[in-house]
């Protein structure tokens, strides 16, 4: 395995921690800055919105530069943002640190996906992307629980100091192990020429599948604590351990999904998205049963995150002229899916449909992703068939006679 992939995974681990750790430390941060929970929530919302901005605008701005240099400077930005958060004297400075760290999120994963794919052979590209995203899944399984414990024991600032240190380790790895020729830019192209990639309907279809496919899982996951306690009957203390099981499913699905996507990209996505829709329906129907709930949690994580390498690879293939910009846009699409899923789940709960309703909504959104992907596949196949040379009607091949 190229050591550059490990460096990218460490960077992904740190970024994943930055995104998710605040959820476990929000009460301590709110109390320290004397703000109400709604204001504290902007430390999450502001981060997510900044990810979308950075994934699109920052990636477009730096796309003409050497990708290794860009990754290095993005990690420097990440370190600065988290150090500001750790030292923040006021809530406003803390929010600024979160925004600075978030700006590198989308670009790092977008550009990192292209670099990771360039480190390996053609038939291993989705698997290489999966290795980079393993850092993100590990942040959920290991980083968030232990980071929360550290923050509760030694103060929330200690967790952000630890994340800053992880960023330094990733920075050293990127400097040492990413080969400069492999990370070369595609060429000095104008922003206008880069944006032409979005004229492709298949690029937009791929981005839409990402929004719906990932949004379906995240819609069910956003309110999972309420489902586990209010419907299944688990205690609040059991929720963190159940989320670790979900996280294990993320890791397994990410690795297996990446390997499968290398063998057959669209078929893997169809199977995984269809399976996720079925799992969500089964989860909604059996949420009162603790055993079935545990099984559903693991499978939801496996099938849901198993789609990530394939979704990332598909948009890169459909945007060969500007894969970096499209890759960054797909990271933004993941975050839009998060927002869509959470919003729909919140609407169903507000409508009085109960705490299994976000799971039903997630199943419906995922099913829409399956239909959209199926349509995109049929369209692509029809277009390829129409573009291939057709034999002239009424003619037959001339036999070749041996001497």
From TrEMBL:
<feature type="transmembrane region" description="Helical">
    <location>
        <begin position="203"/>
        <end position="226"/>
    </location>
</feature>
<feature type="transmembrane region" description="Helical">
    <location>
        <begin position="70"/>
        <end position="89"/>
    </location>
</feature>
<feature type="transmembrane region" description="Helical">
    <location>
        <begin position="128"/>
        <end position="148"/>
    </location>
</feature>
<feature type="transmembrane region" description="Helical">
    <location>
        <begin position="359"/>
        <end position="380"/>
    </location>
</feature>
<dbReference type="InterPro" id="IPR020846">
    <property type="entry name" value="MFS_dom"/>
</dbReference>
<feature type="transmembrane region" description="Helical">
    <location>
        <begin position="39"/>
        <end position="58"/>
    </location>
</feature>
<keyword id="KW-1003">Cell membrane</keyword>
<dbReference type="InterPro" id="IPR036259">
    <property type="entry name" value="MFS_trans_sf"/>
</dbReference>
<feature type="transmembrane region" description="Helical">
    <location>
        <begin position="291"/>
        <end position="311"/>
    </location>
</feature>
<keyword id="KW-1133">Transmembrane helix</keyword>
<dbReference type="InterPro" id="IPR011701">
    <property type="entry name" value="MFS"/>
</dbReference>
<dbReference type="InterPro" id="IPR050189">
    <property type="entry name" value="MFS_Efflux_Transporters"/>
</dbReference>
<dbReference type="Pfam" id="PF07690">
    <property type="entry name" value="MFS_1"/>
</dbReference>
<feature type="transmembrane region" description="Helical">
    <location>
        <begin position="268"/>
        <end position="285"/>
    </location>
</feature>
<feature type="transmembrane region" description="Helical">
    <location>
        <begin position="5"/>
        <end position="27"/>
    </location>
</feature>
<feature type="domain" description="Major facilitator superfamily (MFS) profile">
    <location>
        <begin position="4"/>
        <end position="386"/>
    </location>
</feature>
<keyword id="KW-0472">Membrane</keyword>
<keyword id="KW-0812">Transmembrane</keyword>
<feature type="transmembrane region" description="Helical">
    <location>
        <begin position="332"/>
        <end position="353"/>
    </location>
</feature>
<feature type="transmembrane region" description="Helical">
    <location>
        <begin position="95"/>
        <end position="121"/>
    </location>
</feature>
<protein>
    <submittedName>
        <fullName>MFS transporter</fullName>
    </submittedName>
</protein>
<feature type="transmembrane region" description="Helical">
    <location>
        <begin position="238"/>
        <end position="256"/>
    </location>
</feature>
<feature type="transmembrane region" description="Helical">
    <location>
        <begin position="160"/>
        <end position="182"/>
    </location>
</feature>
């Amino acid at each position: 395995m190229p050591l550059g992939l490990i460096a990218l995974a460490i960077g992904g681990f740190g970024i994943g921690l930055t995104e998710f750790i605040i959820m476990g430390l929000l009460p301590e941060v709110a109390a320290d800055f004397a703000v109400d929970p709604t204001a504290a929530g902007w430390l999450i919302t502001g981060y997510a919105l900044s990810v979308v901005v950075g994934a699109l605008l920052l990636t477009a701005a730096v796309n003409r530069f050497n990708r290794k240099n860009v990754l290095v400077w993005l990690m420097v930005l990440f370190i600065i943002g988290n150090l500001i958060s750790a030292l923040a004297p006021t809530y406003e400075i803390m929010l600024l640190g979160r925004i600075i760290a978030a700006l590198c999120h989308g670009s790092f994963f977008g550009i990192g996906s292209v670099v990771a794919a360039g480190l390996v052979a053609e038939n291993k590209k989705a698997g290489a992307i999966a290795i980079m995203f393993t850092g993100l899944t590990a942040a959920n399984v290991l980083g968030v629980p232990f980071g929360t414990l550290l923050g509760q024991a030694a103060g929330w600032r200690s967790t952000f100091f630890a994340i800053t240190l992880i960023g330094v380790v990733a920075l050293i790895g990127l400097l040492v192990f990413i080969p400069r020729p492999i990370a070369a830019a595609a060429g000095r192209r104008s922003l206008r020429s880069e944006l032409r990639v979005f004229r492709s309907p298949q690029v937009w279809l791929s981005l839409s599948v990402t929004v719906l496919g990932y949004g379906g899982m995240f819609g069910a996951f956003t309110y999972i604590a309420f489902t586990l306690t209010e419907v299944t009957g688990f205690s609040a203390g059991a929720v963190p351990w159940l989320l670790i099981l979900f996280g294990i499913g993320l890791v397994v699905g990410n690795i297996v999904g990446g390997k499968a996507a290398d063998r057959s990209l669209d078929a893997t996505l169809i199977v995984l998205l269809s399976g996720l829709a079925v799992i969500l329906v089964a989860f909604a129907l059996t949420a009162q049963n603790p055993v079935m709930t545990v099984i559903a949690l693991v499978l939801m994580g496996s099938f849901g995150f198993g789609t990530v390498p394939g979704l990332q690879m598909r948009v890169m293939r459909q945007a060969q002229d500007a894969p970096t910009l499209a890759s960054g846009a797909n990271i933004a699409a993941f975050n839009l899916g998060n927002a869509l899923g959470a919003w729909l789940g919140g609407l169903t709960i507000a409508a009085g449909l109960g705490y299994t309703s976000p799971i039903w909504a997630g199943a419906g959104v995922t099913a829409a992703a399956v239909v959209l992907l199926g349509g995109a596949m049929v369209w692509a196949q029809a277009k390829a068939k129409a573009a291939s040379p057709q034999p002239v009607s009424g003619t037959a091949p001339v036999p070749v006679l041996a001497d």
